[in-house]
C-alpha cells in the first residue's frame, strides 16, 4: 500500500482553482460588458471563489505538512499544523459550497416566470443554507477549546480538552451530503420545467436545458464522497481522510465551474457570430478574386466603320467608332452597348467598353449645301 498519498492533495487544488477562476472571470466579463446585467448570483459566486481559494490554499499547505501521510511518519509539529489546516479547510468548504449553490439557485430564479418554480428554488436554497451552517458550526465547535482539534495530535499529556464523539460529525456530514446531492439534482431538473414550456425550437430548448442544468454535476462528487465519511473515526486521521479532502475540493470546484459556465452563452454566441462573419468575409473575398480577373496591361483598340450617314450633314461622311475595351471590370453578363450610327456590339461579361464616334468628311462639300439653312428649310425650327 502506498505510504504517501499527499501528492494528489497538493496537485489537484491548483487545477480546479485555475479552472474555476477562468470561468468566473469570463462570467464577470459577460455580465458587466456583454449583457450588462450583473446580479446577486454573480456576487455570490465571486465570494464563493474567494472561499474556495482559501480552501485550496489550506489544503495545499496541509499537504506540505502531512495530509495524506501516516501519523507515525510525521513530527509532532507537522501533525499539529496539518490538522490545523484541515480544520480551516472544513470551514472554507462549508462557506464556498453554500455560496456556490445559492448562486446557482438565484441564477435559475432570474430566468423563471412561474411562482411554483420560484418557490421551489427558494426552498432548495433555504435547505442548503440551513444544513450548511449546521455542518459548519458543528465542525467549528466540535472541540473545546477549538484549538484542541489540532493540538491533541501532538499527544502531549499537558494539553487538555474535549471533543464530541466522531459519530456526531459523521452524522452531520452524511446529512449535509444527502441534502447537497438532492439539491444539486433538483437544480438540474428544474430548468426542464422552466424552459420546456417556452415558445422556442426544440433544439434550442434542449441546448438551454443542458446549459442551465450543468450546475448539478457537482452532485457526482458528493455521491462519490459518501463511502469515505466513515474515515472520520480513524485514528490515523490525516492518512485515512485524504479522499474526503479531495472529493470535497472537486465538489466545490465543479460547482463553481459549472455554475459559471451556464452564464457564458452570450459570449459563445458573440464568438460564433464573429467567427461566422469573418469566414463569410474570407469566402466573399476569395469568390471575388476568382470571378474578377486581374486588369491586363494592354488596351485593345478596334475600329468599327459605320455605313450610315448623319442626317444633319452632307453626303460623303463616314462615321468611325473607336472602341476602347478593358478587361477585368464588371459589366453584367449579357449587356449590350450600341451607338447610333454604328452596329450593335455584344460585349463579354466583366468588360467595360468605352466608345467615341468621330464624323469624318471624306469629300468636298456640295455647292448646293448651305451650312446655315433657313428656318423654313430646316423644318420650322432652328437646329
UniProtKB/TrEMBL annotation:
The protein, known as: Rhodopsin domain-containing protein
One protein family per Pfam: Fung_rhodopsin
UniProtKB keywords: Membrane, Transmembrane, Transmembrane helix
Protein's membrane topology: Multi-pass membrane protein
Family statement drawn from the similarity comment of this UniProt entry: Belongs to the SAT4 family.
Transmembrane feature ranges: 12-32, 44-65, 85-108, 120-141, 174-194, 206-224, 244-264
UniProt-annotated location(s): Membrane
Domain annotation Rhodopsin: ranges: 26-270
Chain segments carrying region Disordered: 363-383
Predominant localisation class: membrane
Organismal lineage: Eukaryota, Fungi, Dikarya, Ascomycota, Pezizomycotina
PANTHER family: INTEGRAL MEMBRANE PROTEIN, PTH11-LIKE INTEGRAL MEMBRANE PROTEIN (AFU_ORTHOLOGUE AFUA_5G11245)
One cellular component (GO) term of this entry: membrane
Domain of life where this protein originates: Eukaryota
